[in-house]
Each structure stands twice: as C-alpha cells, then as structure tokens.
Design a protein that fits this description.
Layout: H1 6-9, E1 13-20, H2 27-36, E2 40-47, H3 54-62, E3 69-72, H4 79-87, E4 94-97, H5 109-117, E5 123-127, H6 139-156, E6 168-171, H7 187-197, E7 202-206, H8 222-237
Parallel strand pairs: 1-2, 1-4, 2-3, 5-7
Antiparallel strand pairs: 4-6, 5-6
Helix pairs in contact: 6-8, 7-8
C-alpha cells in the first residue's frame, strides 16, 4: 500500500503519460509545467502522427534533453491507442493521464494523488464540476458532459460527477487487471466501466479547468459524444 507518511511520500514515483496530437502551440509550455512538479517522475509523451509541427518539437526540443521518453505512432490512431502505448512503458507507482493542451494544470497533481497516497483510493478522477476554478465556456458542452456521466453512472452503478475528465490517476497495478481496447475517445467510458466492474476504490477531487474553444484547438465534438453513448452501452452489455 502506498503511504502518505511524509517520510515515504518522496519515495513515490509518478508516471505522467501525455498523448500528443497537433498541440504545437501548447506542447513546450505543458512539458515545462509537468517538469516543475516536485515529485520523482517519468514523463512519457506519445505523438499520434501529428501534422502541425508537434512531432518536430518533440524530436528537436524535448526528446533526449530532459529525461522524457518520447514515442511515435506512424499513423494517427487516437487518444486511447496513444495512452496504451504510453502505459506499456510506465515504471512508476502512480500513473497520471495528462492532455498535451493547457486545459488541465499539473499543479493539481498533489490533490489528485492524495487519496492514493493515504491508502483510500486505487483510482482518482479530477472533476471539473466539484467547485474548482474554471473558465466559463459552452453550456451545451456542459450539458453533454452531464448526460454522458449520468448514463455512465447508470450503467456502472457508481456516482461520478465527471466521467469524461482527462485527469484519471491510478496505481499502476490497476493496468494489470483491466484490458483496454478503444483507440480514440472511447478510452474514457471504457476505463470507467472496467474499473467499476473490478470494484476498484474510486475517488473524485476538484480540479481547476482552463477550457479551450474550437478556435484555440479544441478537438472533441458532437460525433465523439454520440460515439461515447455507444461505448457506454457496449461496455455494460457486450464487452468484458
């Protein structure tokens, strides 16, 4: 069991897995912020065949210069596939999923790993809807997130407030008990369904959120929401 004893916390190693697809504008700043977090850590970036120059930034300015592990997909396969590639290389005690944009702040790591360090949780979700500071954006995105989370909760019999959040943090051993298959944004409902089925101890904590609009590079859209409905149903009735 991971302990929150101050004398032992510095022995915990974080594995931060960052899927990257066309994030040229934010990539260097995001890596800088992750590097600034005061924990022992490994940073694993997976480029999912970016076409905007992100790949060149990884090759020329990040790979081999700060200890980060950089992996490359030859073709675009999706967030879920990039995460699986990264998860396979993790060696830390706690795995953190970190998007390559600047919507989620690595300063929240201490809050996110707290319930794991003190032995209460196996998995922690960072919720955008529990009162943390957040940028005010689209009403219908908010409604869509609430609907998908409610549907997921109905199918899994858990009571999350934010199933679609990027920040999913877990003991690395969790990966030994679930098999992930979704290549794209289906990762979110798949991971949630499978950890619920295995009855892992799940906590939520409030996080800050600096959401982007589409002019700033936001990628997820209504088609991904429709796909998420199918995945929520699929992983309840048709998949183990």
């Amino acid at each position: 069991m991971i302990s929150n004893n101050p004398q032992q916390t510095n022995l915990v190693k974080l594995s931060i897995v960052i899927p990257v697809y066309n994030e040229k504008a934010t990539l260097l700043e995001l890596v800088k912020r992750v590097e600034a977090v005061d924990y022992e850590k490994e940073i694993i970036l997976v480029d999912d065949a970016s076409t905007d120059g992100s790949r060149e930034i990884l090759q020329n300015e990040i790979e081999g210069k700060g200890g980060a592990v950089v992996l490359y997909h030859k073709r675009n396969r999706g967030k879920g596939a990039a995460l699986r590639t990264g998860f396979a290389k993790t060696t830390g005690d706690i795995v953190i999923v970190q998007d390559a944009d600047l919507e989620y702040d690595p300063k929240d790591y201490a809050v996110l790993i707290g319930p794991i360090l003190d032995g209460r949780a196996d998995v922690v979700f960072g919720s955008r809807f529990l009162g943390g500071p957040h940028r005010v954006l689209f009403f219908w995105h908010y409604v869509g997130n609430l609907f998908l989370t409610m549907l997921s909760n109905v199918m899994t019999n858990i009571n999350l407030s934010d199933m679609e959040t990027c920040y999913k943090v877990f003991r690395r051993e969790v990966l030994n008990d679930i098999t992930l298959t979704c290549d794209r944004f289906g990762f979110e409902p798949e991971f949630t369904a499978k950890i619920a089925r295995k009855r892992f101890r799940i906590y939520e904590v409030p996080i800050s959120y600096s959401g982007r609009d589409y002019s700033e590079g936001k990628k997820i859209g209504w088609k991904d929401g429709v796909a998420a409905i199918w995945f929520i149903i699929r992983f309840r009735f048709f998949s183990k």
